[in-house]
Design brief:
alpha+beta, 12% strand, three-stranded antiparallel sheet, 77 residues
Length: 77
């Protein structure tokens, strides 16, 4: 279960992304949000992305409201 601090951190990051969608894009392989300069997704190694602002904002809002369920590259260190 997500701790209150972790949930607030996810909400804060979602707000940052939603306020600056041009700086991000959504991986079409795993639905992660990555920086706009990313070439290969660090989570699934996919290379197809959706840079549409509405898609980025919608995904940020969805991820910000839900507990993390995926394993990220940071989790593996």
């Amino acid at each position: 279960m997500t701790q209150p601090f972790q949930q607030q951190s996810r909400l804060d990051k979602a707000k940052e992304i939603a306020n600056n969608p041009g700086n991000y894009k959504v991986c079409e392989g795993c639905d992660s949000i990555v920086g706009s300069a990313t070439i290969i997704c660090p989570n699934c190694h996919g290379y197809r992305f959706d840079p549409e602002a509405t898609r980025v904002v919608d995904q940020a809002v969805w991820l910000g409201r839900h507990e993390q369920t995926s394993v990220t590259a940071e989790d593996l260190h």
